[in-house]
Design a protein that fits this description.
alpha+beta; Jelly Rolls; 5-stranded antiparallel beta sheet; 3-stranded antiparallel beta sheet; 3 helices; 26% helix; 38% strand
């Protein structure tokens, strides 16, 4: 069964912790052993796993990706808005899918790891698709 979780964002660039929603989807699937695939159907957003314990980690990640791909007005892509071209590049660099091991009815994560939706062109109403498969 495919599940979809809404992810509203409130800023141009933002990391949104979605771990609890993913764990709820895994539990609702009834799968005890298998895999959980997360898919972001947006071209200016991404998924990542990192530490959720210190909010400064998210700020450092945002600062660094902005250093690597700064927003500028001379991108060739200007279909939506000139500023979203950087978001397309950031999404491709970061990635739009994650695969997690499901063990004992939960997605496996390290003690300090959280699952983040990474907005690069907000604020928007976003979503993440989740598929949990026994195996």
């Amino acid at each position: 069964m495919l599940q979809t979780i809404p992810v509203p964002t409130g800023a141009r660039q933002q990391l949104v912790l979605i771990t609890a929603e993913v764990q709820q989807a895994v539990a609702a699937s009834g799968v005890q052993e298998g895999v959980c695939v997360l898919f972001c159907p947006h071209t200016t957003a991404a998924l990542t796993i990192n530490s959720y314990l210190d909010a400064a980690t998210a700020l450092d990640m945002q600062d660094e990706i902005d250093r690597l791909v700064p927003t500028r007005t001379n991108f060739k892509h200007i279909f939506d808005t000139p500023g979203d071209a950087a978001g397309h590049i950031k999404s491709s660099l970061t990635g739009i899918q994650l695969t997690l091991i499901v063990h004992k009815g939960r997605a496996l994560l390290g003690d300090s790891q959280g699952i983040f939706f990474w907005e690069f062109d907000g604020p928007r109403k976003r979503k993440v698709h989740i598929k949990v498969v026994a195996g």
